[in-house]
Each structure stands twice: as C-alpha cells, then as structure tokens.
Amino acid sequence: MSITRSFKASDMFKFNNINLDIWTETYGIGFYLNYLSRWPDICCVQEAPSGRMMGYVLGKAEGQGPEWHGHVTAITVAHEYRRLGLARKMMNFLELVSDEIYKGFFVDLYVRCANKIAIDMYEGMGYSVYRRVREYYGSLGVGKGGRDEEDAFDMRKPLSRDPNRRSIRSNGRDMIMATKSRSDPSTVCFTLHAAAMHVQLRLILQLEHDLSPMPPLPPLHTCRPPFPILHSLEHHTSPQRPHAG
Amino acid sequence: MSAAALERQIRPIYDALDTGSNKSALVTCNKLLKKYPQNELIKALKALALVRSQKIEESLVLCDEVLEAKPTSDATLTAMMHVLRGLGRHKDMVKMFEEAYKQQPLNEELAAQTFFANVRALQWKSAQLIATRMNKSFQDDRYLYWTVMSTMLQAEDHGTPAQMREILYKLAHRLLVSSPTPSYISAERFHLHLSILLKLDLNDDAHKLLDSPIGKSICATNLSCNEFRREVWKRKGLVREEGELAKNLILEKNDRNWLEFLSVIEATFSDITGGEEKLSEEALDTVRKNVQETREFFSKIEDRDGLKDRSSLLAQIELEKRSRAYGVTDDQARLCALLKEYFEKFGAKPSCFEDILPYIDLEGDELAQWTGVLDAARTTFETEDELRRVINIFKLKRYNLPPSEVTHEVETKLATLYTEKYLDALKKVGTELASTETQPADDLALLATNSLVNLWKLTADDGYLYTAAALLEYALTRSKQAFLARLSLVRIYRLLGAPTLALEHYRILRPKQVQLDTLSHYILSRSSNISLAATGDLTFGTECVESTQIYVANSQETGDFIIRAFTAEKYSQIPEFINFEERLENSLQRDLVKMEHIKMRLQHENIGPEVIDMELIELKFVFDRVHHDNRDTTILPSYQPKSSSDLMTQTHLYGKYEGPGFLRQMLKVYIRVFQQSSDLDDTVEEKLLIGDRPKLRIDIPPDFTFQDRLVERSEEDLKELTADEVSLVEFATALSDWLEVYHNHARPHPLAVLAEASKQTQLKTGHPLKGFETPPSSNGNGPKKDEEPPACVEPPEAVTRFYDGKFHIKARFTEVKDATSPLEAQHVAAIAQEAFLLFVAETVRFKNQTVVKQNKLGALVASIKSIRSNAVAILKEISTDLLKRSEAEATAESRKAFVEECSIIISTGIDHDFVLNVAKKMTDARRKTLEGFAKGITRICSNYGGN
C-alpha cells in the first residue's frame, strides 16, 4: 500500500530515511528545485499511509528530433520498503508520462555494466542495451568487475511513438562510446540507487549553461539576508579569536 | 575606444569575480576607472568586488552613486543586483529595476526583471501590477497568468487580512476567465485555474472542467491535477462515483495506488457517512451489502495479484476496520483472520510490521487470538526470508506487550533473546553481502537497543546504555551502512556523556545540504552544554557554523528557482517553492543552533562589545520569526511497546526536547542582557544597519512593546527547560531587573556612539559613516547628562543566592556530582558557567573605571565584585570536583565495571575484548569531556575572575 503522488519541494525535509542510504546522493537544493521547476510532472513519490516517504523518482525529457526521450535521473527506495515492487511502479509512471505527455520516442537510463541484477530487472521491464559508455563510473575506481565496474550501459525502452523500435538496437552491447570529458563544467556526475535490487547506477546530467548566469556564490558571511551589517563594525565577522588571557 | 575594446577590458573583471579573486578585480576596476571615471558598469563591478571583500563602507558609496544615476543597461543592473543582494538591500533592488523600467517601458526584458525583483522580495502586490502592465504592453497570455499567480500569492501572504483574501481570489478568477485561451492548453495553467476555483468553493465549475474529455485526459497523467480532482469529487459528495472510477482503474489499468483503494472503501460506506445520528436498518443493510461486494472485489484482485502486490489484502483489513467502526461487520473473527493471512503471506517483507501496525491495537480475546498466531509462528530461521519473518514477529509481539510485562525481568529476557537471535542471524544470513550493504539482521540489534533503553528507563542504570552502545558498535562493524544503528548510537553516546564519540558517528553519516537542517539536532541539540569551547576546542562551534550553510544556500538559490518556475510557467511549483524557502529561512533548528553557537562564543571569546553588539542585532532579527520545525524525529523507528514512550522521546538529552518555547525563553534572556550591555540603542542601530529589516508581525498588538515582550514570562515555554535552566532564567531575569537603571544611566548618548563609529570608519576606510554628520559642537561624549545617577540598591536575593543559596547551584551540584552518570553534574556545571558568563556580559560596562566614576557607581561595583568573587569561588570548586571525577572515569576499574555491566551481550557471544575496547573508548571520551569542561571553567574564572 503506497500512495503515488507528485514530488514536492518540501519532501526534501522528509527524505532522510531514503537518502541516508549509501547509494542515494543528497544534492544541493538547486538540484531538486531545478527538476521541479522544469519537469514537475515526471517526478513522483511513493508514500506510506503514515506519511513516511518510501521512494521517489526524478526524471526529465530531453534530446533533439528522434532522440527526444524521457530520462530516469534518480530512482530510489528506502531500505524498509524494498522488495515491494515500488521501483517498477515508479518506472511505469515515468514511462507513462514520457509517452503521453512528452511524446518521447523512448525512455533511457544508465546502469553499471557489472550490475547484472539491475540489468536483468530492466530487461524484464522491456529495456535493452543501446550502447556501452566507457569509463562512465571512473571516479569510483575499478573494482572487482574490472571494466564492467567502470563502464555503463545506456539502456532504452521504445515508447508508442516509436512503433518500429528504431530507438533501440540488438547489438547495443557492442556499440562503445567514450564518456564526455569530465572537466566539462556543464556535466554533473552523480551516483544513484535503483531500489529493489540494490542497483547502482551512475548518470550524467546535463545542466544547461543558461541556467546559471550568475557568478559563483559569495562567501558565507557576506550575504545572509536579512543580514545585519554594521557600518563600522566589520571586525565582527572576522573569525573567532582565542581568549586574550 | 570602441565598445568592443571596452568590453574586452572589462572581461577580466568578470573572470576575477567568478573565480573569487576580488583583489585582482578591484585592481582592474581601479585601473579602468581612471580611464572611464563615469562608467557605471565598472563602478558597479567595483562595488561588487568591494562587497565581496567585506569592504562594506566603500561599496556603499559606489553603490549609491550608481543607483543615483538610474542605470538601465542590462550588465550594470545585473551587477548591481548582486551588490544589493550582498548588502541585503532587496527593496532597493526592486526600486532600481522599477526606475529602469520606468525609463524604458517598452523593454520587455527589463519589465520581466522588475517583475522578478518583486518576486524575489516576495512583494506580490507590486509584482501583480507589473505583470498586468506587461500583459497590456506585450500581449502575451503568460503575463496574464503571472498576474493571476501574483494575485493568488498576495492573497496567501501572511500579512493579508481575511476579507481581502476573498477579494483577491475573486480578482484572480476574473482575470483568468478573461484569458483569450482556455487554461487547459497546459496542465500547469489548468492546475492554477483549479486552485482558484477550489479557494472560491466554485466546485461545480471545477467539476465541469475536470469532467470534460480534456480535463479527464490531464488528470490521467498529471498527479497534481488529479489531487485536485479527488478533492472536488469529495466536496461534491461524488464518493460513489469516485469509488467506481477507482474500481475501474484498479481492475482495468492495474493501478495500485493506495488512494484508489481508499476511494473504493469510502464509496462502500457512502450511505452512512453523512453524520446521521440514528441509521435506519435499511441504510445499514445497504452498507452491509456494499461491504460484501467490496470485499469480493478486493478478494478478486487479491487472487489476481498473489504475492506481487499487497494492496488488496490490506484494503480488506482496512475495510474490516471501518466496518467495525460503523457496526456493520458480520464476523468478529474476520479481522484477526485477515491479519493472520497478511502475516502469513507478507510476513517476510521488511514493511510488514509497519503495514499492519494501525490494525493491531487489539484487546481481550482478540488480542489473545492474535498473540496466539504470533506465538505459533516459528522463530527459527535459515534463510533471509525466514529471518525477516522472525523480526516481524518480534516487533509485532513487542508492540502489544502489556504494561504489566514491561518489567525488568521481562525486558532482560527479551534483550537477551534479541541479541542471541541477532548473533545467530549474522552467522546464517547475509554472510556473502558486500560491505556496502546492510545486514538483514540489523533490526534485531535495534530491537535489543529498544529493550535496553527501556531497561535503562525502568532502572536508571547506565549499565544498560553501556550494553546498548557496545551492541550497536558491534552491529556497525558487521553492517557499516546501518544508519539507523548509527543514529541510535549517536543518541546513546550523548546520554552517556561522550559527545565526541556521538559526533564521530554522526559525521560518518555525512549529512549535508538540507539534511543539515533536518538532522543536525541529533548532535547540536543543547551542544553548548557539552562543548569545550572555553578551552579553545571549537569542534562543536565549527559544526554549528557548518550546519548554517544550508540557510545561505536557501537564501541565494531558492528565490532563483521561484523565478524559473515563473519563466517555465510551472505554477503548481511556485507556492511549494515559496513554502520551502520560508520553512528553511525560518527554521527552528537554525535559530536553536544560533543560540547554542552564541553560548559557545561567550565561552570562547573575550566578552566585550564586539561579540555583544553583533549578536544582539542578530538575535533581535530572530526574535520575531515564526518558526517552522523541520527536525526529522521520525527517522528513528521505535519498536517500543505501545504503553512506553517511543525511543526518540526516551533518549532526549536531560529528558527534555527543546522547541520554540525553549528558544523564545533563551532569546529573551540573551537579548535583554546584551541590550543592557550594549551601547547600541534603537536609534544608533537604525543608523548603523544596512539592508532590509524583517517584516513586522501583524499578529502582535502594536501596544505590546518589544521590551514588554522580553520580560513576559510564559510558564508554557518554561516547560521545555530543565529545572536548572529555569533557575538560570530566574537568575538572569533578576540580574537584568537589578542593573537596568544603571545601564540606562551610564550608557553614552547615541550621538556620541555614532560619532565614535564614524571616527572609526573614517580611520579604517577613509570614508566617514554614511548618512551621519558629526555634530560640530560634539566633545565626543554627546550631550551632557543632567540627571543624578540612580541610587545604588542591594542586589536581589535571586542574584546573590544563586551560587550558594540553599537550593541553588552549589547545592544542586553537590547533589548530583557523585551520581553514576556524570551527565547531570556536567549540566549543572554548564548552567553555573552560563550564568557566570551572562553575569560577565551584563557587567562589562562597570569594569570601566571612568564610567564608574562619572556615574558615581562605586557602591554598585562593590556589590558586583562580591557577587563575582563568590561565583568564581564556587565555579572553582565545581571545576575541581569535575576534574577529580574525570580522573576516576577512565581507569582499569571503570572499564572493568563497564564490561561487567554488559553481561547480557557478552554471555550471548559478543567478544569480551571487543566490549573492553568500547569501554575504553567510551570512558576515555567521557574523561576528556569532563576534564576539558573543568579546565574550561578554570580558564573562564581566571579570565574574568580578577576584580
């Protein structure tokens, strides 16, 4: 019994039971607000009748021409609500919206090549590997699985607008592409956890440049509005000093 | 020189600002200003570089210069936007854009910027006016919707009176229906439209919209609109229709949203929910029939879903619960049978306990029957599923443990049982899991912790907390990511007086971003009581400062997203974002931390005008906030019997959980002391402060002055304080009452204070204080005082007897200093120290010989000296005792005692040496805390003890 409802900004105050999980990253508030200010209809929450959050999915619609598609950015379920099929429920929702509202050709997601359980799950849901992305998870280092640990599969599932299934291919596992340069400032990498099966995914999120036309944030003490600033008493904001005595 | 060339020269300034090289930006600005002394953009950029280098005074001069020129260029306006934001002058920002827009009324971009400036300042009325004008000038529907949204937000603003609200909603509605295009062309506009209709209770209109093909199609995919649809159907009493829709969704679309199941259930009882007093037999029969039908429906779904989805079976349980409430159940045994079925089918799901918790509040035979089901279940396991089932059995049984069995004996047995099973489970299940995974057995350790905490509550014996700490430490070696175990441990270490260990574990959880607001209370609640700031150890102070980053991020970022939501026309999100921003901005935790931090500053820094003036102003800003409590207290699950308090409540430090009352009371005490001590009175503050002032609270009657509110005493608020904190409040109040007249007499004249400030500013920045002219005749002391100094009266007893009175600090300390746990002794010591620091802050003024002489306060100073030396003597005694105690904390005997207390877990198989190691760490941490605290007191005594 879980309630499906839209993700709200104030959910950030109550997602700790989900986000303290090691594979679920807690981003800056701007990350969530960015999604909500652009694709609020594609982000949803699973909630227990007690009001406790069970899991959530954040997604978006992007791409040009035949590449226009829905994308799963983050999907996660709290420990205590795993193995209830919530991830599947949320994926279904995201596919529905990507199909009917955004009229995308397909939905895609990224998954670590070594994560067989997750890949099987997604395949069971109709996804197939479209390509392999080299060193996608580079920063986590190569683990037991070697290459498979650091490479990602980009998996896709065609939607109704692609009846001929042109957005997928059967030999996706052999199609290899290099990861975009990590120094690209418009690229933010992050890990996430696809629920139910302890899945580890790592995705690349494109943040448009035009979203942040401002200079970087000023230091902490300069602008805490309404921050009282005394004309002549600037020394107050200097770091604490030890006792004179 | 061409514009392009100038642009090329300005580019490096931006780069420097972007990378935080403010100095280099300044140099470049100065160089360019020589060539182009009148260039607004360069001036604005220089002002920005100055603001960011903390050169407030100089930037103000430039900033006002640029503002006076009424700039209109995009680049200058943007730069100035950052300058003004940095200075907290949002209202001036609005003015600047409005001036620019006035000059170029056909500039759409400028119009939008002006609108946004108002949005940022949450000034909905003017935002609405601008949007209206934009709609007229630029003929874009979007601006009409901006007008509508702003009108709605104006209505919802706290400051809008109720009757005005109604008018505004009506206005919004009128505007919206005037739109040339229908709202349903976008789901977001549709959402806004519906929200207005709901506010105005125009349910028929809303129903018509929603019931149209396009309305239906929007609701089928848009969750927020569908939420409104549910509400409208409910308001219109279309419960039965809603039930039919829901049935259809469940059956045809395989929708398993619990809300649909609830709709079906509500429809089942729609004949008797009208609030009739006496129901006709006929109506009851219909309902009985409905219940039967619904049951069959759910049961059909249950057959179809099998073990794949648990909703239909739970729905039957919910249906049965409500049937009983309405007295229409035909089989009293059904509930228990259904619970049994649920447990059998889904007992291996981790959520089983929580799922059926609302239904197991049973009594009498039924309880016995249910307990029988659980008793009959096997509590041995080999597989993960079996283990989960056992865990659920334990949780379910524990919940219904009768009060008569919440005893030392039973709980000891249970704690032993849980631990045994836990260790057994570790051997059998999850042995192959990677270290990044959590162990399925973790919950057994949590159950044991609950049991041990209950034992501690029953016996007040710290040994049970030692045991819990050792067990949880062990659990964390086996399941490194078990964050619930870690959080429990954080709380237990705090109760044991080992805050550094608590902090260590808290940091492993790496709370960040918004979690700094929701989780920091785990470690920072009453942290000034355990902080060693007086010895120069700033660990907790730093933690306080770090936790405030989220509020900075909120004030800098959230506003931008509100604007983006306007730009992208995501109207459903705008009120949500505003609410989010406000909840963080006015977070209770934020200001509780602020309070703790101030207390630590007083322990650490030299108490003088530098600390006092600044904190006074900040606290006054905080005082009128309407706080929101965002602290997450639900994350820690409680597995206590229903007759006991939950784990969170049981483990509050000193048994008290501070809320808004605590904060209010502390604010009153500190503001009053600082106010008296400070030379800044309201007029001086007004001149010295830059930036916007907080909004006035409309719910406070105007004749209830700030000063009156500071001395108002609320018994309700005091309930959130410990008894010792209450005595601190009484001491501080009496002290302030006593010294108020002398402060008011001896405080220099505002003009003198301003003249001095201006002089300092001139010395430092080369500019005099802006907006203040030093009066020519001033001799530096302001106008002469004529009145006689107030007569010196004896200090009140509440002050003189605080330290050694019969019921006060000394007696309290003697009472608790030898208790098994050092926690209370340290709390009393912290209160003694805090009272002394408040006393120091309150008497700084009278340390100055000139002030004393001028105001003839010799007799007063003599009283102060005697109080001070008395306080110091007692603080020194306390310090000596604490030090002595700390030495006894970390010895071979204390470790041995710790280990002996942990017999429950050692006898069940946790390694003796492992426990010994925990004992060592815990006792060492305790010793260090006590020792540091004792030394801190000594240090404070030597700093302020001299007369």
From TrEMBL, chain A:
Gene3D superfamilies: 3.40.630.30. GO terms for molecular function: protein-N-terminal amino-acid acetyltransferase activity. It holds the Pfam family Acetyltransf_1. GO terms for cellular component: NatB complex. InterPro entries: Acyl_CoA_acyltransferase, GNAT_dom, NatB_acetyltransferase_subunit. Residues 2-160 form the N-acetyltransferase domain. Keywords: Acyltransferase, Transferase. The keyword Ion transport does not apply. Transmembrane segments: none annotated. CDD domains: NAT_SF. This is N-acetyltransferase domain-containing protein. It comes from Leucocoprinus leucothites.
Automatic annotation (TrEMBL), chain B:
InterPro entries: NAA25_NatB_aux_su, TPR-like_helical_dom_sf. It comes from the Eukaryota. Residues 766-793 are annotated as: Disordered. One of its GO terms (cellular component) is NatB complex. Belongs to the MDM20/NAA25 family. PANTHER family: N-ALPHA-ACETYLTRANSFERASE 25, NATB AUXILIARY SUBUNIT, N-TERMINAL ACETYLTRANSFERASE-RELATED. This is Actin cytoskeleton organization protein.
